[in-house]
From TrEMBL:
It comes from Massilia suwonensis. Keywords: Signal. Residues 153-175 form the Ice-binding protein C-terminal domain. Residues 1-23 form the signal peptide. The lineage of its organism: Bacteria, Pseudomonadati, Pseudomonadota, Betaproteobacteria, Burkholderiales. This is PEP-CTERM sorting domain-containing protein. Pfam families: PEP-CTERM.
Length: 177
């Protein structure tokens, strides 16, 4: 019966069954040149699992670009735990979805700080044109899989019994010849 349980567990693990966790913060965050935004996601990793991948998904738009005289050339910088993920240029009024695969070790401490900031394009006469963007949604997806169950190591008495049995077979074979 114990062998059947082990086979069932091995089959379960070999199927690659995994789970995903989502963490989303409230959409509708307005970012300007002078007001960057940072959000820290927290993730509690289930026991006996490993993180396979982390995906950052966001949808960004610039609703002010609907007015023809307010079109600006935004440069949105996206960082995860202080590391540059992407620089998005020329955000449209209709918006666009972006997806990034992040290194699983960024969540090793259970936290992931995602920050968004806008650069300043120098306008006429060296003035700083105000840039803005709307973070319509930001989503973190974490995919985990169970850790492999280590194989059982036979105890010394089992090995001793097996060895004695093999020696007995060898001895009985020598007696016959």
């Amino acid at each position: 019966m114990n062998v059947l349980k082990k086979l069932a567990a091995a089959a379960f693990l070999s199927l690659g069954l995994s789970s995903a966790a989502h963490a989303t913060f409230i959409p509708g965050t307005y970012v300007t040149t002078f007001t960057p935004y940072t959000h820290t996601f927290t993730y509690a990793q289930p026991g006996n699992t490993k993180i396979d991948w982390v995906r950052l998904s966001l949808f960004v738009s610039d609703p002010i670009d609907y007015l023809p005289w307010t079109t600006t050339q935004e440069v949105l910088t996206v960082k995860a735990d202080g590391l540059l993920v992407d620089t998005i240029s020329n955000i449209s009024a209709g918006g666009k979805a972006y997806t990034y695969e992040l290194a699983p070790d960024l969540l090793s401490d259970g936290k992931l700080a995602v920050s968004f900031s806008l650069g300043c394009n120098r306008g006429w006469f060296g003035s700083c044109a105000l840039q803005d963007a709307w973070l319509n949604s930001v989503d973190i997806t974490v995919e985990t899989s169970p850790l492999a169950v280590p194989a059982e190591v036979p105890e010394p008495a089992t090995l001793l019994t097996l060895g004695a049995g093999l020696l007995g077979l060898m001895a009985s074979r020598r007696r016959r010849s």
